[in-house]
Give the backbone structure.
Amino acid sequence: MEVQSYMENGVLIVEPSGKLDTFNAPKFGAELARLLEDKPASCLLDLSGVTFLSSSGLQVLLAGAKTSKKEGINYRVFGMQEMVNDVFFLSGFNNFIESFETKQEALT
Amino acid sequence: MATFKMGLNQLEETLLKIEAFLGDADEKTKFKAMFICEELLTNLVRHADFEDRTPTISLKIESDKGSGFVMEYRDNSKAFDLRSHKDPNIDAKIEERELGGLGIYLVKKYAPNLEYKQENGSNVLRLSL
């Protein structure tokens, strides 16, 4: 599990890679919470490198969405692989996190 | 076929062994199998009550031509039928949204044929993928 982050056109892009499972999700959660403390206007999660998502990973995505809602941060995700997307939708996370296929779509 | 026996402090190594056993199975089936194993075993390690018994946890996985895998899971913790576990409200607004129960909810979604029984003081789950 690695987490990269960078700014692009005023948007904070956070890119975790590897498994968002019970062992690795907490590291991503801590990094995401730290990045959201700076209250960026927009935070876009690039999930294209995420190969596995369990309820521990969902917990991190939910915590980020709750913080963003509270702080007025525009929080979205893009690039989910097929089964990661499946877990995301089955969990109903599409009800409160907008998701896109590509970065380009997410940024426009 | 493989049988994995696990102690409460062996979650990570057990999941890695299961992943290695599943090998080059179809990606979607493998994802679902690993999802189910992680949720069941993590839930057990975090929440199960073994009362005064020594924890005995095992997971048997067989390849099945018709589906993908048949799994039989056993533990001797206090009786818990996850089929009766309350589903989370996945339509709740974000403010009311809680994570509890989501792992079990998704296990039931991925294994709708899940069977549960109590046998000789153990929780026994059978499912196929």
Remarks:
- The first helix of chain A runs from residue 25 to 36.
- Chain A has one domain: 2-95.
